[in-house]
């Protein structure tokens, strides 16, 4: 059996690129924002006054994604700033995904500007992986006007790492046999899901590179970083068996996320937010009389890096508590203590299946939980969403 072939496609400086393309193609401008020091940044009067995307020339001024706009302007007073237009970015994202789905129906949209593709077994249709990756990259540029990087490997983790190699507009491979030469020399901070807090703890243990982490004692890592230590040790060794999870184009997405007004630095506060998000998602599921089998938690840290984790529920569900409990478990496995800017709860594998796998070890009264949720839904539908709330939310921001 041949090994899997996974692509990770990442738009280069997505928001900035999409603004540049829009202004050239739709407004007829001749100046390309990508060729001058420019950046997309939020409204400084709100809590979105940070750099969201920057041009390559802006990098010469040491401008970094996630830094405050005021700091960026100190470095480059002539920096051209553009306010974000998220509706426009959604349109470009959808067009981008449409091209990817021409090559395989197994496409997982990971964020607005990146996706995984399972290209296993498509060699007879499109050619060798590097050949088709370049074809996809070029088609996106020729059709939509912006560039992407493509990472190729046998699993999602390595494909994502490969797409982060030299940019822009390039294709890179990172197969297991290439890990030692291409990935292990990199700083440990470059490894997916290693945040600032984890990096500091690893450096205190003398672990500076991904190779150092891969060769470290996993027991020692677990004692310092708990389950997260084992997870990043597996990543450092290139281990990841997660599947590319496609969402059919006609399937409704049930998810919710929020950018918080102040960085979250405690698990208790984060779980308050997760509870609110889980309530929102579960309520919509019940309203549409559907259930889900996959729950994921999405986190954007205060440096604007993005991490996500998902798992399959024991049975199809639309129960708030069940979705929330899964979200908390995922959060505990994923978060390393780095301040959080955004939290999200998303679900997948939507169906009308109401069967439940029974277990002698599980004494949860699911029928009671379902009745409770329906009662809450009924009250809110009749008297408004604020008519009833959980005690844990009282006097909370």
Quick structural summary:
Helix content is about 40%, strand content about 20%. With about 400 residues, the chain is of the alpha+beta class.
Rg computed from alpha carbons, rounded to a whole number of angstroms: 22 Å
Order of helices and strands: EHEEHHEHEEHHEHEHHHHEHEEHEH
Overall mean pLDDT:
87
DSSP strand content: 15-25%
Q: What structural class results from the helix and strand content?
A: alpha+beta
The total beta strand count reads 12
Number of helical segments with 4 or more residues: 14
The rounded distance between the terminal residues' Cα atoms is 54 Å
Multimerization status: single chain
The rough form would be described as: globular
Low-confidence stretches: none
Trace the largest sheet across and list its strands: 5-6-1-7-8
Helix content: 25-40%
Strand count, sense and barrel status of the largest sheet are: 5 strands, mixed
Overview of the molecule:
With 397 residues, the protein is of the alpha+beta class. It is 40% helix and 19% strand. It is built from 14 helices and twelve strands. Strands 5-6-1-7-8 form a five-stranded mixed β-sheet. A four-stranded antiparallel β-sheet has the order 9-12-10-11, with helices on one face. Helix 4 runs antiparallel to helix 6 and helix 12 runs antiparallel to helix 13 (320-334). The longest helix is centred in the last third of the chain and has 21 residues, at 267-287. It is globular, with a radius of gyration of 22 Å.
């Amino acid at each position: 059996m041949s090994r899997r072939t996974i692509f990770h496609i990442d738009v280069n400086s997505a928001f900035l690129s999409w603004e540049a393309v829009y202004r050239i193609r739709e407004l007829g401008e001749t100046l390309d924002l990508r060729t001058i020091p420019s950046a997309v940044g939020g409204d400084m009067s709100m809590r979105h006054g940070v750099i969201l995307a920057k041009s390559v020339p802006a990098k010469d001024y040491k401008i970094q994604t996630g830094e405050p706009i005021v700091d960026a302007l100190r470095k480059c007073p002539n920096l051209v700033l553009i306010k974000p237009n998220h509706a426009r970015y959604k349109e470009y994202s959808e067009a981008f995904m449409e091209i990817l789905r021409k090559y395989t129906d197994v496409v997982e949209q990971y964020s607005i500007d990146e996706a995984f593709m399972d290209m296993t077994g498509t060699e007879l249709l499109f050619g060798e992986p590097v050949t088709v990756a370049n074809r996809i990259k070029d088609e996106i540029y020729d059709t939509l006007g912006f560039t992407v990087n493509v990472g190729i490997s046998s699993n999602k983790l390595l494909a994502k790492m490969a797409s982060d190699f030299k940019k822009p507009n390039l294709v890179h491979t990172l197969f297991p046999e290439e890990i030692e030469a291409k990935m292990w020399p990199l700083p440990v901070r470059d490894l997916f899901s290693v945040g600032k807090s984890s990096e500091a703890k690893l450096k205190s243990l003398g672990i500076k590179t991904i190779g150092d982490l891969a060769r470290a004692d996993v027991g020692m890592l677990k004692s310092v970083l708990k389950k997260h230590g084992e997870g990043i040790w597996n990543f450092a060794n290139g281990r990841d068996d997660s599947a590319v999870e496609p969402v059919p184009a006609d399937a409704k997405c049930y998810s919710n996320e929020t950018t918080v007004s102040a960085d979250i630095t405690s698990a208790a506060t984060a779980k308050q937010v997760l509870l609110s998000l889980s309530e929102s998602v579960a309520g919509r599921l019940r309203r549409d009389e559907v259930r889900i089998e996959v729950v994921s938690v999405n986190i954007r840290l205060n440096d604007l890096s993005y991490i996500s984790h998902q798992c399959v529920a024991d049975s199809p569900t639309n129960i708030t508590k069940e979705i929330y409990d899964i979200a908390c478990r995922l959060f505990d496995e994923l978060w390393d203590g780095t301040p959080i800017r955004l939290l999200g709860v998303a679900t997948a594998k939507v169906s009308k299946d109401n069967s439940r796998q029974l277990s002698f070890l599980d004494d949860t009264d699911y029928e009671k939980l379902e009745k409770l949720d329906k009662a809450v839904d009924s009250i809110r539908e009749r008297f408004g969403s604020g008519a009833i709330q959980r005690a844990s939310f009282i006097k909370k921001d």
